[in-house]
Design a protein that fits this description.
Radius of gyration of chain A: 24 Å
CATH class of the largest domain in chain B: Mainly Beta
Number of strands of chain B: 31
Number of strands of chain A: 5
Helix content of chain A: 10-25%
Largest sheet of chain B: 5 strands, mixed
Distance between the termini of chain A: 80 Å
Radius of gyration of chain B: 29 Å
Strand order of the largest sheet of chain B: 4-3-5-6-7
Strand content of chain B: 35-45%
CATH superfamily of the largest domain in chain B: TolB, C-terminal domain
CATH architecture of the largest domain in chain B: 6 Propeller
Structural class of chain B: mainly beta
Number of helices of chain A: 4
CATH topology of the largest domain in chain B: Neuraminidase
Number of domains of chain B: 2
Structural class of chain A: alpha+beta
Shape of chain A: elongated
Helix content of chain B: 10-25%
Number of helices of chain B: 4
Largest sheet of chain A: 3 strands, antiparallel
Oligomer: heterodimer
Chain lengths: 277, 441
């Protein structure tokens, strides 16, 4: 029997190492859990009252009929064509590819009919396809945390200081991306609306995880990571998620290459943003 | 051997292709921090359509009430409906998100108002996060048609709560003193209206030529205690809004005024002026038993219960000038909590009991301020020639008071507890002594 040479053994070891590495990575980064969305708020009926001179109210609230929910759609790698949506933030000029034919529309995640395409009064872009992402509802994924006491804030106008923060990676190759992360955080600073006057709102710091593609689209997430069962935190997280969604695609193109196709976690730190306001 | 090497090369290539995504995923998560942002009111579009039974544009009227409520809070910037690209978005259909993004709406609330077969008004509405393309809320509210404003306020409350995490305060009422006539012959009526100044109406009071002062709501907002001043008496009455019945609070010697209910509604604290001194009493409304809490020759007035009913804040000049004191609900452990220059009066505990609103007079001017429940961190929110009588919104974020310019009529004003938002309450006549109701049920 012919003996195997050194090159064969080395090749075998390399391949085994690759497979082991891939296996470990998959174990550390499991795919996101899909959660079915919940129906509308349930409100009980109230008894009616007789009116006196002052209009004492007779008000009843009933449970709305549940909206039929479609089956959760698994994430599909459908490439979304870049849409020329007019965004307030303009990056450096880059040739934009012509939009391809729109793919068939997947079922609506909120169980509603899509409107018929009608000519708009003003020139508007083609209707964007619903983002293919796991079914997600913030209300169904909250943990408990009490809110904080109020703090006085001086009146302030909108500001757009952009200091950005350095990135923290997990390997030697990420050290060079620390300053490049500033490009993304500076853009998110401009997109993020927040409230510093509601009690507890200046103490929230929702962490949002998402992945960007080079065409500026969010291909995974955005997802609120450090959830709290607190309505003020939930309101703050909604604003952080909106900032990420608002930025695609125009605010997220022309970023350093190292920011694309990898998980990003952004902390929207209201504690710092509200300091001195 | 060559064949084996070729096979190995092909397998290696295939394995590399398969492992490529795993390799990419194996890159570490990159973390960054956003720490500036834009602190500004949230842009929101309100688009509720539909008609009433006679074909009137009820949806438009409801939309205007909702927009006014949200804008008055200082946290929202409603978008002018004239800017809408998508008109009358159907509540049963997903909105055209691109059209709302174009006008920079961060949120959209659309809905439909209609009168059902039973003659009841029904309003279905949804709240959308435009950029996340998610529905945040969906509710259906019904009422008798004349209560369409209450439905609008409840919609505003739901939107406010969802987007701020705080309780709303729009479905509430204000009881106040409506003033008219010359200053030397003022006519003072007991009046009630919605918190936005709509639906004002007079309430009948006992006696003729009665001047009404310091009306206050009970915790369930079904009763109002007020002082009725006539030529020969000053008495406290309790008015039941549901039945219209009024009753005098016992036979009290002297002048009784400044009534205020305990949080559980079982007691009424008020001041009685007798023989040159004014002291605070508490009446058990079930037994009508009366307990005197303060004594001495000073003027002790304006009692206010804490949220748990265990502490009473009041004004006293026992130290030489009007200052704010605290005491236990049984009258013990009296301690002073204001020490700044000027005089302090009309203390009112916040609904949560964490703050006290007050009136301060100093340097010829009046101010409305707030401080911690223990008296610390006092800060002034407003200042003018004459203003006093703070009352809290039920969510503890807004204070209403009355203000009078030199030679002018008194009017109602509202200020946010940080002082950031201050605006007049749109009641056309003279108004003073407001009291804010709890959330209506």
């Amino acid at each position: 029997m012919k003996k195997f040479g050194p090159s064969f053994i080395v090749s075998l070891l390399l391949h085994a190492g690759l497979i082991l590495l891939a296996f470990i990575s998959l174990q550390l980064n499991p795919p996101p859990v899909k959660v079915a969305s919940v129906p509308v708020t349930v409100i009980s009926d109230m008894p009616s009252r007789q009116m006196a001179e002052a209009p004492v109210d007779e008000l009843a609230v009933k449970t709305p009929e549940p909206i039929p929910q479609p089956e959760p759609v698994p994430p599909q790698p459908v490439p979304t064509p870049p849409q020329p949506v007019p965004e307030p933030i303009k990056p450096a000029a880059k040739p934009t590819p012509a939009p391809p034919k729109p793919a068939p529309t997947p079922p609506d995640k909120n169980g509603l009919k899509k409107p018929d395409p009608t000519p708009a009064k003003k020139p508007t872009p083609a209707k964007p396809e619903p983002k293919a992402k796991p079914q997600d509802d913030l209300l169904s994924r909250l943990a408990a945390t009490p809110s904080q006491a109020p703090t006085r804030r001086a009146p302030s106008a909108s500001t757009q200081k952009t200091t950005g923060q350095s990135a923290v990676g997990s390997g030697p190759a990420d050290a060079g991306l620390k300053t490049e992360m500033n490009a993304l955080t500076q853009r998110l600073n401009k997109l993020w609306l927040l409230n510093c006057d509601v009690p507890g709102s200046q103490d929230v710091a929702p962490e949002i995880r998402f992945t960007l593609s080079p065409n500026g689209r969010v291909t995974d997430g955005p997802e609120w990571v450090n959830k709290r069962n607190d309505p003020v935190w939930q309101a703050g997280a909604n604003l952080a998620l909106a900032a990420v969604n608002k930025g695609q695609p125009n605010a997220f193109i022309d970023l350093p290459d190292g920011l694309y196709n990898r998980p990003l976690k952004i902390i929207f730190d209201a504690r710092k943003a509200c300091q001195g306001r | 051997m060559r064949l084996m090497n070729k096979i190995l090369a092909a397998v290696s290539g295939a394995l590399l292709l398969l492992c490529a995504p795993a390799f990419a995923y194996a890159q570490g998560e990159l973390t960054g921090t956003v720490d500036q942002g834009n602190i500004q009111p949230l842009p929101i579009a309100i688009a509720i359509g539909g008609n009433d039974a006679s074909g009137g544009d009820l949806g438009n009227k409801i939309s205007k009430v909702v927009m006014n409520d949200l804008e008055s809070s200082g946290y929202f910037a409603p978008i002018n409906p004239a800017a809408f690209i998508q008109q009358n978005p159907d509540v049963a259909v997903q909105p055209e998100f691109a059209a709302w993004k174009t006008i920079n709406a961060q949120y959209l609330s659309n809905g439909r108002a209609f009168v059902d077969a039973d003659g009841r008004l029904q309003v279905d509405f949804r709240l959308w996060d435009i950029f996340s393309q998610n529905q945040l809320l969906g509710q259906s509210l019904t009422a008798t048609p004349e209560n369409w404003r209450r439905i609008a306020h409840k919609i505003a409350d739901a939107i406010y709560e969802k987007l701020t995490g705080q309780e709303g305060y729009f479905d509430t009422r204000i009881v106040f003193v409506a003033e008219s006539g010359y200053k030397t012959a003022r006519v003072k009526h007991l009046a009630i209206m919605d918190q936005d100044g709509a639906n004002p109406s007079y309430l009948p009071v006992a006696g003729n030529n009665t001047k009404v002062m310091t009306p206050r709501f009970s915790a369930d907002s079904q009763e109002i205690a007020y002082m009725a001043l006539t030529a020969d008496s000053a008495r406290i009455y309790i008015y039941n809004l549901e039945t219209g019945r009024q009753e005098a609070v016992g036979q009290i010697k002297g002048m009784a005024f400044a009534p205020r209910f305990s949080p559980d509604g079982s007691k009424l604290a008020f001041s009685v002026s007798q023989g040159g001194a004014t002291n605070i009493y508490v009446m058990d409304l079930r037994t009508r038993g009366l307990t005197k809490l303060t004594s001495g020759g000073a003027i002790n007035t304006s009692p206010s219960f804490s949220a748990d009913g265990g502490t009473i804040a009041f004004t006293s000049d026992r130290g030489g000038s009007p200052q704010i004191y605290l005491m236990n609900a049984n009258g013990g452990n009296v301690r002073r909590i204001t020490f700044g220059g000027g005089s302090y009066s009309t203390p009112v505990f916040s609904p949560k009991g964490d703050m006290i609103a007050f009136t301060k007079q100093s340097g010829g001017r009046f101010s409305i301020g707030v401080m911690d429940a223990g008296g610390g961190n006092a800060k002034l929110l407003t200042s003018s020639y004459l203003e006093e009588g703070p009352t809290w919104a039920p969510n503890g974020r807004y204070i209403m008071f009355f203000r009078e310019s030199q030679g002018g009529n008194p009017s109602l004003w509202m200020v946010e507890v940080t002082g950031r938002v201050e605006r007049a309450v749109p009641y056309p006549g003279g108004a003073s002594d407001p009291a804010w109701s709890p959330r209506l049920k």
